[in-house]
Amino acid sequence: MSTCSITGLKQQLIKSKELNTVWNYFFDLMKETGSLRKDNTTIPKPKEEDTLIAVLTIIENIVGQKLDRKVTFINLMFNKVSDSHFYHGFCMIKGFSQPLSIFYFLDVEMGSFLYNKNGRSEMFRFSLTTTTDPNTLIKH
């Protein structure tokens, strides 16, 4: 019996302070349910999918800042799990050999991505909405 769920992953993403915990849950979910579930819908052109355009733009900006260069995503493969507002997939950063993994929840406009930089995993949480939660504000 599966102990992980998409709803559980969403709660982990929203509440967990440690992204390692979130990504371990994600990988356990994929392992338990299979990475290509029968209720997935493949998105043939992610760069033309309204929901993913903003997600990919934010991620390109963050990764570009971290790598100190403009990045281009290639070989994008995304799925949407039916009736769940959950997207997941991966792509390559042009010039890198490791994939960038992404998941995103449309209903809470929040997601996370992971990639390798110099043999070390870099994990990020992102949101498409502005938050006023004092715990997430950065003092300038």
UniProtKB/TrEMBL annotation:
Origin: domain of life: Bacteria
Official protein name in the record: Uncharacterized protein
